[in-house]
Specification:
The protein has about 375 residues and is an alpha/beta fold. It contains 13 helices and 16 strands. About 40% of the residues lie in helices and about 20% in strands. The chain has a five-stranded mixed sheet, with helices on one face.
Length: about 375
Amino acid sequence: MDRNKEIGKTRSGLRYGYTTGSCAAAATKAAVQMLLSGEEIHQVQLMTPKGILLYLDVEEISMTPTSVCCAIRKYSGDDPDVTDGILIFSTVEKSDSFSLDGGLGVGRVTRLGLEQKIGMPAINKVPRRMIQEAVEEICKIYAYTGGVKVQISVPEGIHLAKKTFNPRLGIEGGISILGTSGIVEPMSEKALTDTIYIEMKVQKENGCSLCCVVPGNYGIEFLQGELGMNLDTAVKCSNYIGETIDYAKLLGIKKLLLIGHVGKFIKLAAGVMNTHSRQADCRMEVLASHAAMAGAKKESICKLMQCINTNEAIEILKEEQILQQVMNTIMDRMQFYLKNRAGEELEIGAIMFSMEDGILGMTKDAQGLWEQVKEGKK
C-alpha cells in the first residue's frame, strides 16, 4: 500500500494532504542525507508541525560529487489545489554556512506587505524553519559541522502561478512555498460552516452571550501579540461572515464582536459577507471611493485602484494624510451592513486591523463590546 496516502481524513471523510512546504523540507532532508552518506535513498520521513509523521517517496534523484538534487511529489488530498501532483525539488551542496534560495518556478516577492521582503523567494517562514531544521537534523546524525546551501525549485511553478493570485499579490515568476502546519486540511463548505455553528453552540450552552469571532490565524496572532489577549475560545469563521451572523441569531447569542485583518474585513464595507476572493474583490474600490469622499486627489485615487494589496493602499492614504478619516467612514459603512444582517436582536461590532499599523478602526458598537471582552464579561 502506498504510505504517502496514509495521512488521515477529516471528520467529514475528506483526505488530508501535505503542503508545498512539507515537500520542500522532505526533499531537502533526503538530499542532505544522500550528500553526506553518498548513498541513494528512496523514502524519507518528515515530522510536520502538526505532529503528523509523513513517509514520502523520493523521486528524480541526481547525484554528483559535490551536490544532490531530488524531488517530492505534492499531494493535496481532497483539497482542490492546482499544485497537486507537481514535483518540488531541492538541490543541496556543502557550504560555509546554511543558506536558502528559490530557483526555477519559485516566485519572487516584488511588493511590500507580504511575509518576505522584496527580492526574496516566496518561501514562507514555517517552511523556511522546516527546511533548516531538516538540514540540522541530518548534519547532526553524520557529525557534519559545515554549512549547506539549499535551493528549492518547482519547474511547473512558472505556468501554475498564472492560475493563482500570486501575480496580483506581488509574487512573480512562480508559486509560493507555503504551509503553517505542514498538512493540507480540506473542508467542504458545509463541513466548515457546520464547524462554525457547533463552536458557537458550545459557547452559548456554556453561558456565553458575547462571542468573539476571527476569520483565522491572523486574528488570533493579533489578539495575542498586539493586545495581549489569549482568546482560545474565539470562533474561527474563515470567509463566512454572513453565515456566522446568522448562526449567532439562530442560537440566541446576544453579542458578537468580529476582529479581522483589513485585507478581508474591508469588503464588509461594501456589504460583501463572504470574503473569499472568488466571491468578490472590492478592496480597492472601497478604499478609493472613501478616499474620494475624504478629498483625495484624482492622482491618488487612481493609484489606489492600481494597488495589489491593502498595505500598499494604506501607505497612499497616509501620504494624503487622510487615513483616519477614510477609516472612520469605512467603519460607519461596515456597521450599516453588519447591523442590517444582524437585526435588532443581536448587538454586533467589528474591529479592523493590520499587522503593520495595529487597529485601523472600530465600528460604533465595537468599543463597548471590546471593553467587555477585556473585562471577561459573558
